[in-house]
Each structure stands twice: as structure tokens, then as C-alpha cells.
Amino acid sequence: MMLLEPLYIVLLSVYAHGITLLKCPLPLSTLGPRSLALFQRLFSPFPHPTAADQIAYQAHGTVLDLGPGLGLHLSAFRGPVEQGRITRIYGFEPNTSGHVDLRENVKKEGLEGVYEIVGLGVEDAAEFFQGKAAKEQDVQEGFVDTVICIHVLCSVSKPEEMIKQLWELLKAGGQMLVWEHVSCQKRSKGRLGQGTRSSMSLVSHLIL
């Protein structure tokens, strides 16, 4: 039973890739992002409420939401926004194939005017914020109060580099909230089960 969940993820990834290829095979350069967006839509009925409740809800001030995908955790921002704890959110999602769904979820959660979708990766974040700071004549050191990273670091080749880039974006006293897969330390079939689950978010990237 414990292997059924990762097997389901693999099959869903293969299905998303095949459907995208059949419907619109070209251009090949965008096949991966389009397939990933379809995979996320198919998997969207299974959000991760714990991550949303315990991580996103703790955000405050100006927030950088890294890799929001289709925005499955956006509901957790609604409370802090209504309470005035969050003033602005920048969702850095380089896969523009999912922006339509992300925009719909922003509207659904009442975050319009607060949540700005940015079609860039973290490597371009510093330049983006420097441009905004120059326009607003904001000379303070750092750009954001909170960085949120939910199931993103597990799918990048150099997580240490990304963490360093994100850390440099924080204002003094800022916080980085990270939710990632962990490995069970017990020598049991539980470790095997959790080990396979820890690879789930990587499956679509490896296949696509």
C-alpha cells in the first residue's frame, strides 16, 4: 500500500506528459512547462493543508512566495492579509503555463491588489526588487520581510545557492519559512515509504 501513492504520481506525470504531447507537440522548448502545468491541475484536488496552515499563515509584511505553482496554498494568506499582517505578496512562478490558474486562485481567495504574479525565477529576484526600490526611492537594505518556500528546494539542483540568493533578499529581522520533505530516521518500512514520498515532487520534473 505504501508504494501506491508514489506509483500514482509517476503514472499521473506520464499521463500529463503524453496528453500535452498529443494535443500540442510544438514548440518542444515549452513542452516541459506545459506538461508540468497540466500535472499540477490534475493533482490540484490533493493540496497540502498542513503546509498552508503552518507555513504560509506565519508570513508577514512584504512576502516573496517562491514557486506557488497553481496557488494551492493561497487560502492561508487570506487571514494575515485581512488582519493587516501581510501588506504585499510577490509570487515568483517562472512556469507561465500555470499563470491562468494561479491568477484565478488569487481572485478566488480575495488577494487581488495584494498578490502580484511575477514570471521570473529567484535568480532574477534581486534585479526585480532593485528596480522597484529605485522607482519608489526606497533605500533600506533588503527587500522582503518573509520568504516562503514550499516544496521547491527539493526540485532544484543547487538548493544551497538558492537559499543564499533568497537570504540576501531579506530585510533585517526577516524570516525564511521553508516546508520540505524529510527522511524518516527509523530503520523500518516506514523509511522506505517516506523515502518514496520524498521523491514525489521530483517526479514531474524528471519525466518532463
Structure report:
With about 210 residues, the protein is of the alpha/beta class. It has 2 domains: about 5-45 and about 185-205, no CATH class; about 50-180, Rossmann fold (3-Layer(aba) Sandwich), CATH 3.40.50.150. Helix content is about 45%, strand content about 15%. It contains 9 helices and 5 strands, in the order αααβαβαβαβαβαα. The chain has a 5-stranded parallel beta sheet. The two termini are about 25 Å apart. The relative contact order is 0.16. Residues about 185-208 have low confidence and may be disordered.
Key words describing this protein structure:
single chain, 208 residues, alpha/beta, Rossmann fold, 2 domains, five-stranded parallel β-sheet, 46% helix, globular, disordered C terminus
